[in-house]
Amino acid sequence: MSVIEIRGLSKKFGKNVVLDNIDLVIHEGDVVAIIGPSGTGKSTLLRSINLLEKPEKGTIKINDQEIDLTTRSAREKLELRKNTEMVFQQFNLFKNRTALENVMEGLMVVKKLKKSEARSIAEKHLQKVGMGDRLSHYPRHLSGGQQQRVAIARALAMDPKLLLMDEPTSALDPELVSEVLITIKKAAQEGNTILLVTHEMNFVRNVANRIIFLENGKIVADGTPKEIFDNPKNQRLKEFLVKIHMLESADYTI
Amino acid sequence: MSKIFDWRLVFTEIPALLKYLPVTLQLTGVALIIGWVIGLLIAVVKIHNVPILRQLCTLFVSVVRGTPIIVQLYLTYFGIPIALKYYNFYNGTSYNVNGIPSIIFAIVALGLNQSAFDSETIRAAIQSVEKGQVEAAKALGMNGFQIFRRVLFPQAVTVALPSLGNSLISLVKGTSLAFTCSVVEITAQGKILAGNSYRYFEAYCSLAIIYWVMTIFIERLFVYLEKKLSVPETVSTEESCGHTFTPGKTGRALSKKHGQEKGKGKEE
């Protein structure tokens, strides 16, 4: 069973330490949710893993290959990015391409598949996210939820070892959140390895098999949803859960 | 008494002027390509903030935008031969200035002028593409060149097109000054013909008509291109399968099929 090992990941913005020597081991098929107060480096952790941010220190072992996250080698960077895919808060679809073309893009340009192959893979993945009837729609013709589902199809079509999701539902209208969550749940059930930053605690409780509580650049708590939500040991985690109404507080009465 | 204004000549002279239209078009075409290519290079230097080169580019753009095109034509017309003489002197070569066709001087001047104006348009257009899309392309594993070719370029073109069209129109009109580099194009030919007949006003009327028609044609062309390259307003079943790439026959058939299904969906 292959694992993804992140060792000693550190990242500063100026003097502000955002990630402080993070170690994280993710097993294949895991759905790991990262929770925590804003500004604690949740997104930065994700973005450092596929080098959209440049960490100061750290290594990642993926696909039995260890890559230094401070690498300057373009080949290693591309290698890492090919093994990971990202779903963004703002969807970031290519605006000048249809849903189908968006999904085909990586398959054709990066994986160098023939157009017909790319097309059939892309159609398969778009059908899975329930967008099979919107193949020739441009992003501007799709709702936020639909765009995010296309973005998920685009990421999954690349068959990543690790799927990174950076607050995939935060930019959506409330009524569109569930369609995206259902899509993510399906992707999780199909055995994709997912590292997810989200504020949808009820979703996390149901879908994730492991939760990491990140604060001030450190992993403060790490456990199953049961351990985190029902029996939090860490004081800071308790306070956080109270604040987001996931835990009854003693002096909290209406 | 001969006519004060020979309106017939305005039209009968046009064919004689059009004989030199190929020269005007050649000047325009080559200068346009030089302008786009160098303009793109300048834009890339500015976006990536390359030290030294960036300052040089800023200086170049500032000088070109701050001087009249006719002065620039004179500068190249007299400057290139002087540069060549220096080169010959220091390297012991004997390149002949007279061997350079005069159209080259005009093309260099017009092309460089065009590049300075287009560089700003191109830079703004490239920077108008959302950063998020570049990140998405990076995350997919595309390299820098692929990101430029597949993500930035196609979208920047749509943004830049109207301004590039305007700048092309001013280039066409700028070619009328090429006579200063002793290039005979349509305006020069008009002056020559008028020199013989003393019908200057008629010749300039003919020229005005020719330039105007060319400009209308270019305007129309750019409006058409803009429409063709932009993302359609509505989901149309026929065209929706993309201008950015053309799918094969199966693709068209499929997209049609989906269109029909969509139609059905609406009826329900």
Automatic annotation (TrEMBL), chain A:
One GO CC term on file = plasma membrane
List the top taxonomic levels of the source.
Bacteria, Bacillati, Bacillota, Clostridia, Lachnospirales
Topological type in the membrane? Peripheral membrane protein
Kindly give the InterPro entries that the UniProt entry links to this protein. AAA+_ATPase, ABC_ATPase_HisP-typ, ABC_transporter-like_ATP-bd, ABC_transporter-like_CS, MetN_ABC_transporter-like, P-loop_NTPase
Q: What is this protein called?
A: Amino acid ABC transporter ATP-binding protein
Q: What is its main location?
A: membrane
Query: Which keywords label this protein?
Result: ATP-binding, Cell membrane, Membrane, Nucleotide-binding, Transport
GO molecular function per UniProt: ABC-type amino acid transporter activity; ATP binding; ATP hydrolysis activity
Where is this protein localized, as stated in its record? Cell membrane
Q: Source organism's superkingdom? A: Bacteria
Keyword Manganese assigned to the entry: answer is no
Q: Which residues form the ABC transporter domain?
A: 4-241
Question: What Pfam families does this protein map onto?
Answer: ABC_tran
Is the keyword Transmembrane helix in the record? Answer: no
